[in-house]
Design brief:
2 domains; 3 strands; Four Helix Bundle (Hemerythrin (Met), subunit A); 213 residues; 6% strand; mainly alpha
Length: 213
Amino acid sequence: MKLTRDEIWSYVHAERRALATVLADLSDDEWATDSLCAGWTVKDVAGHVIAHPQTRLRDFRDAVPLLIRAHGSYSKTIYAQGKLVSDRPTAEIVADFDRLDGSRGHPPGTPVRFALIEILLHTQDIALPLGRAHAMPPVAAACAAGLVRPLASSMGVRHKVSGVRMVATDVEWSAGKGALVQGPMQQLLLAMAGRPADRTQLDGAGVAVLPGP
C-alpha cells in the first residue's frame, strides 16, 4: 500500500491528536501503568512518541554515551533515551503534543513511514493496557506494514511471521507465504510487530504461531 508523503503526514498528525486526547485525561495511576513496551510505562511511551518529531542530529551525538553504557545495544539505548525524555511532568508531555501539532519533524535519515509506524504502534502500546480502544486506519496500517514486516527480526518475531501468509480483510493488502492468517489490518500489523494480536478477530491455520494473549 503506497501513500504520498502528504497522505502519510495527514495520518500521522491525526493519530497524534487522537493519542493526545487519550493522554489529556489520564489519572496518575494510568500514567504509571505498564505499556506493551517492556520496561516502559505509559508515560515513558508518551514521552518517546512526542520526542520523535523533536529529534535532531545532535541528539544522535548525545546518545553515544548511552550506547557505550549499553555495550552497543540499540534497544537498550532507545530504552535509556525513552526514560530520559519522559522524566518530566505529565502536563509538559501533553503540552508538547499540542505545541507540535502538525509538525513534520522526524529523526534525520529515517523514512517518513517510520513516523507512521511509531504513532500507530505506540498508540496501541498505550491504549491496550489501559483498556482504551482505538482503531487504526486500515490504509495507514497497510502502508506501515510494508516497512514493519522486513523489520520483524529486530522485533523478535521473524520466525513467527516469515512462515505465514497474511491477508487483510478490510483493505487490499497481503504478504508472505505459508499458512494463512486473515483478519483486520490492525491485528495483522500488531502481530508482525510483536504485539499481542486479538486472535478472536483472526482466521486461518497460521494464527496459532502469532503473538497473542
